[in-house]
Structures are given as structure tokens and as C-alpha cells.
Amino acid sequence: MQSPNESSWQVPVCALHLVDPGLSPSHRAQMSKLRHEPFSQIAAWGDIKEKAHFESVPQVARSSRMVRFVAFVAAATLAGCVCASIDDVINSLKLPLTSEKLQKDITLPALKIHAKVLQSFADKSNGTRVFGSKGHNASVDYVATIAKLAGYDVKRQTFPYDFSQVLSQSFTAGSPINISVMTYSPSTPTGGVTAPLVLIPDPDAAPSPGCTAADYSGIDVKGKIALIQRGGCTFAIKATNAKTAGAAGAIIYNNVDGTLSGTLGVPDATAYAPVAGISKADGESLVARLNGGAVTGTLNIQTLNEQRYSSNVIATSKAGNQSNIVFIGGHLDSVAAGPGINDNGSGSITVLELAIQLAKYKLKNAVRFAWWTAEEYGLVGSEYYVANLPEAERKKIALYINLDMVASPNYVYAIYDGDGSAGKNPGPTPPGSGAIEKVFVDYLASKNISSVPTSFDGRSDYGPFIAEGVNIPAGGLFTGAEGIKTPEQQKLFGGTAGVAYDVNYHAKGDTYDNLNFTAFLVNAKASAHAIATFIDSTKVVDDEKAAAGLAPRQIAPGPNDNAPAQGKHLCVGDLA
């Protein structure tokens, strides 16, 4: 990104106030350094001043033309000779938007800057950006402040939710076995529980082991550790049934290759047995040992479960048709085990950089950005947003694009299966989703890049948008999590077959160094193309909905490229 030499311009502090009247005095004081230093050397605000620079502010706000203009408006206003909307004039300086221009604006150095910032937040927060932590709170401040500086209408949607942290975890059964404690699991007694393992029931005899009380019939599990295969019902049901049967703890082993982590959904220490997940290989090894005789294990889980407050950050453009909103988002939190720079720093960074770069363009349709909180606790932030969205506001959303894990080290280019052609979606997707998928598929194909469909399996923040009764068309990109790359995928994308897409998924190794920057940039530019396409027109989405027999949304005529924005009018006395 260019860093134009602006140091010769002496910009009054009052002019900076005009750019963003909502900035606090401390922020304006920080920004007043513009009078003395080049933009590229100025720290944006307190806690992140060592990392976040005005490279992150849109170029329209950093150009000589804009700086001259802001200084002029400030002087003229104070002199009593102007009474116009600052948003109107700023909008008149913006550029026509094209996909090609926006793609060109997306650069790897900019993405890397944001990734290093998020890594620094985790480094100062015990290696995590989990919701409710200092690392996550700093991340929220970071994106909210940049979005505000970029000129968006920014809201923090703050609400209480139940926080869960693993303080310590271990499991041994002759030798140590790696476990992942389920979110909201209660603790074992201090020092853990040492008891026989009991298989509940033999998975060959039950298609959904541990999902009903009948699975414990005739099995003595009181005071013992239940060993249960994944599948058939939620982890919470399995943990509840184990507790009801008297188990002192529960181990759930995966039914597919790879590690197993998850959440019980809601905290209820009285309902659940202390529970953790293990890999399929470790689980099958324990089953084989149990078939040959008794196995004793020691399970030690110590957790902290308490209520904390957290925030979604929602930023909406002031320009563009506000009755036809193009929405893009990604979750900002990590798991407690690591900094989450791929999951989902990569997605939330892409959303942020798109917001920064779009700020200098004229918009036909409005655009909205979201950085969701507590996704790792069960899509909590996006669920809260959609549940509290009035129907009239919901109908203004043309589509939603989700970005979650777009820089996995052993990546595939996966696109959410909007048309259901892969046959793996658990249910129908809202009409219009196929059109979103096609935009991504066609873009990658135009770059001679292969792609594969990935199912809408409910594991990310598109879930609340495509839910029955909401039915907002959705799509997005994904580069893989704990799943294993196949030989066929290796031929398409390179990398290593037989290895997880992200070996550091939900682990402490999900750091800046875990990112694949090739995939990161490709997906960021693909997202830029999709957003620019839909900001220009959502016709392909609307046509697919009409073909499915859905009544069209009532879309008010949008402003043309030269129409005034609805902004604050600055007249004599405003700054008195």
C-alpha cells in the first residue's frame, strides 16, 4: 500500500474532529500528530500504537486532496461560510468501484500487518484471544476503531454470555493421552478421578452410543469413566446421560480421523459429567484394550465457568442503498488454547481490509461488516445478532458472505455449496445461495484456480442467516480445519495428502507462522471480487430467489453515484 508523503500539511485538530466527531479527546490528541509527522509513522491509538499505523486508514482519508479539503472545511465552517454535509462532500471525492480496482487494493503486506497485530494481542493475553479475554477485547477495539476511522457507522452489540476456560487437563490410561476438554465441562475433584473405563455401549451394537438412558441399561458406570463414541446426538446429551447414570467422568472419542474438540452449548455444571474429547485412533485403541480386559484411567479436568460481557462489532456504510445491504462477516474470537490467527484471524482480517479499502469508493448498494464474538462457543455472537434483528431490518439484507479460516497451511480452496449440488448439506439452503457460490467458483476459475464445494454443516456464522425462518442467501470461503487432505485434493491444490488442512486447528500453534499466505491473498482477492460484484448489483441472487417462487424483497431505489449521503451538517456553532 502506498504511503504518500503528507508531512508538509499542517492539519488543525478541529479538522480532524470534523472527519470523525465521535473520536474521544485522547484519540484526537493522538491524531493531531498529523501536523508534524508522515502518516506512515503515526501510531493510531494508545494500546496498539506500536503496531497499527495510518496505513490502515483508507487512502481517500490520506490523500493530499482530502487533507486540503478537510482543512478548508474546518476553516470555512469556523468562519461561518459553509453549511453542508461533510459526508456529502467526502462522498463526492470517492472513486467509482470496480472489482479489478478493489482486488488490486488488497495486498499481502496489509494482511500481514493485521495478522501481526492480532498475534501481539494474544501474546499479551496468555497466548489467546478467546472471548472475554484481554486479547479478544483488544481485537474488538482494534477493528471497531479502524472501522470508525474509515467512516463507517460502527456499533458494538454488547451482551452477557457464559465464559469457560480450561485451567488444566490430563488423561492417562497406562500412558498419557491427549484430550480436549469440552467447553462448559465441569471440573473433576482436585487431583482428578481414577476409575475403571466403561464402554457405553459397544458402538457396533448402537448407532448413537450414549444418546439415550437405555444405552446404560445393565451397565455399572457409577463412579467410573464412561468411554463413548461421537455421533448420533450432541455432546451435551452424552455428558448429561453419563452424569445421570452416575459416571464420574466421560471421554468421547471421534468417529472420523483427527482430534475432537467441542462445546456442551450451555453451562450447567449440575447436568454434565466432566467430559473431554480424544482422537478416533486413541479411542479405538482403548476399545481394543477394554475388549481384552479391564482398563483404569485418571481424568483430571479443572475449569473456570463464569458470566462475562462481550461484543459483536457491526460496521455499515453511510452510502449506498440501505434497503439492499451486502453483508460480510467472520468471527473475531479464538479458542482458549491458542491465538487463532488462522481460525479466525484470517477471515476477520480479510473483512477488515475490505472495509478499509472500500471506504474510498462510491457504493450502489450499502455494505455491512461484522466481526462476531464467541463463535467458538457455538455461534453465539451471530445467533444473538440475528435473533435480535427486527424483521424489517432483516429484509434489507440481500445476502451474507462468511469468511472462516481462509489461510490454512495445507489448504484447499473450498466454497460453500450454495446450490447443494455436492449433496452433503444437511438441509436446503436459501435460494440465492447458489448464485453466490457461482460468483466465487467463476472467479477462481478465471484465475486458473480449482475449487471444491464445502457443506453448510452449521459450524460457522452463516448458520443463523440460513436458518429456517430467516432464509438469507449465504456463501463464503474456507480452506479446511481438522479434516484430512485427500490424494485427489493434493493433485488440485498441492500440499500433503493424509495430513490435516490445519494441523494447528484449535491449538496453541495457530499463530502468525501458521498462515499460508498464498491462500490468504487468493481468498482475500476473491472476497474483494464478490463484494464489489454484489455492491454493484444483487440481480443474480434476486433472480434465483424469484425462480424459486419467493416474493421479491421491497428494495427502495438506491442513490446514484452522485447522490448526497445522509450525514451530519456542519454549520456555524457546531464547534462552539
Keywords:
single chain, 576 residues, alpha/beta, Aminopeptidase, Glucose Oxidase, domain 1, 3 domains, two-stranded antiparallel sheet, 17 helices, 15 strands, elongated
User: In whole angstroms, how far apart are the ends?
Assistant: 38 Å
CATH superfamily of the largest domain: Zn peptidases
Number of helices: 17
From the 3D coordinates, which CATH architecture of the largest domain would you assign? 3-Layer(aba) Sandwich
* CATH class value of the largest domain: Alpha Beta
**Residue share in β-strands:** 15-25%
Radius of gyration: 26 Å
Extended strand count: 15
Shape by Cα distribution: elongated
CATH topology of the largest domain: Aminopeptidase
Percent helix, as a range, is 25-40%
**What is the count of distinct domains?**
3
Biggest pleated sheet:
13 strands, mixed
Runs in which pLDDT lies below 50 for 5 or more consecutive residues are 1-84, 561-576
Structural class: alpha/beta
Give the averaged pLDDT, no decimals. 85
How does this model look, in words?
With 576 residues, this protein is α/β, with parallel strands linked by helices. It folds into three domains: 13-93, no CATH class; 99-152 and 317-547, Zn peptidases (Aminopeptidase); 163-307, Glucose Oxidase, domain 1. 32% of the residues lie in helices and 18% in strands. It is built from 17 helices and 15 strands. The protein has helices at 13-19, 25-31, 64-78, 86-92, 99-105, 108-123, 134-149, 235-244, 280-292, 341-358, 380-387, 391-394, 433-446, 463-466, 487-493, 517-536, 539-547; strands at residues 84-85, 153-172, 180-181, 193-199, 225-229, 249-253, 275-278, 296-316, 321-331, 365-372, 397-403, 414-416, 452-454, 474-478, 569-570. The strands form two sheets. Strands 2, 3, 4, 5, 6, 7, 8, 9, 10, 11, 12, 13 and 14 form a 13-stranded mixed β-sheet that branches. A two-stranded antiparallel ribbon has the order 1-15. Strand 9 (321-331), helix 10 (341-358) and strand 10 (365-372) form a beta-alpha-beta unit. The two termini are 38 Å apart. 52% of the residues are buried. The model is unreliable at 1-84 and 561-576 (pLDDT under 50).
